[in-house]
Amino acid sequence: MTTDAFTIAGKMALPYQYFAGATSSRCIVALRDEKKILASRCERSDRTVFPPRQVCDLTFEDLSDNWVEVSDRGTITGFTIIRYAEPYQPMAPPYVLALIRLDGSDATLTHIVHSEDIETVAIGQRVNAVFAETPVNNILAIRHFCCVPTDSDSP
Amino acid sequence: MTDTPREQELIVSKQILSIEQTFSTGPIMGHFLRELRDNQRIMALRCRANGRFLLPPREVDAWSLSDDLEWIEVGPEGTLCEFDVVYYASPDPLTGATRNVPYVIGWVILDGVEGLSPLWHLIHTTDIPALRHGLRVRAVFAETRTGAMEDIVHFEVLNTGETGP
After folding, report:
1. Does residue B14 sit at the A interface (CB-CB below 8 Å)?
2. What is the chain A residue with the closest CA to B96?
3. A28 contacts in B (CB within 8 Å)?
4. Do B20 and A9 touch (CB under 8 A)?
5. How far apart are CA B127 and CA A54, in angstroms?
6. Per-residue pLDDT at B23
């Protein structure tokens, strides 16, 4: 009886739609069309956050119209090296995914860090945003971040 | 915030995630699917304890909790005992493609089955309003069979004019 058992290779397809919403849409359009990095500013908590959000998570202030531009430079505050291949990765491994705090922002965003030698990437590394050359409707409108030498204007 | 609505580009991302998977048939479904694929035969399990037919087959009868089961060939003809006409164009979970509508799914009591143990499958017809309970139908097998339920493409309606029991 057990000789009847066999396996069938198959696929499961999951169609879905992601709605970015007003706040994220504004941010992505600015990245894509103007190469500007717009963050949300909360005066009450004195914080500027990128990625932007509609409501401040500390004060619950509505931040919908409080946009401020932040720098395309930032600092790595944490990172990991992706060494395995999996579907739906943004690029072929190995590559660095890092938490980056942009100058002027009090929050971090997760993004790819491009480096000639990924083994030298470290916390505190200064990075610079490189924008995509063709329009992209998501956070990959910033294609990746490049390592740059520590500069005197580092915060 | 202003009260007047603003013109704004709102971003929507449409995607189809495709996930590889492996279905392990086990011995019982394996035998059922192998018979479909290799011999174009529909095999049901009959529980010796209570006479219930299991279709698709299962390892154990859920009522008697007995695994004393015997294989019995049923079909390929049968009687339509219930059907739904589907107008909602849902995505096919195996491909992500949107299904063509309307289509009909039906419960078929295959010849040889005792009791109400139906097989659920697509019913092919060019005349949906003419569908009714008791119509005679027959399984149409795919030319290329892989050992899956799709080895039966659908059930076609037989123009016998007669209705089953």
Report:
1. yes
2. A13
3. 11
4. yes
5. 53
6. 85
Q: What mean pLDDT is predicted for residues B54-72?
A: 92
**ipTM value greater than 0.95:** no
The CA-atom distances, in angstroms, between B60 and each of A56, B52, B149 are 56, 11, 20
Mean pLDDT of B41-70: 93
Q: How far is B44 from B32, CA to CA, in rounded Å?
A: 8
β-strand pairing of A73-82 with B136-141? unpaired
- Residue in A11, A24, A65 closest to B18 by CB: A11
Here the tokens at position A11 are 């696929």
d(C-alpha A138, C-alpha A28), whole Å: 6
Nearest C-alpha in B relative to A64: B1
Interval A75-118: pLDDT, tens: 999 999 999 998 788 889 999 999 999 999 999 999 999 998 99
Q: What percent of chain A has pLDDT over 70?
A: 95
Q: Does B130 touch chain A (CB under 8 A)?
A: no
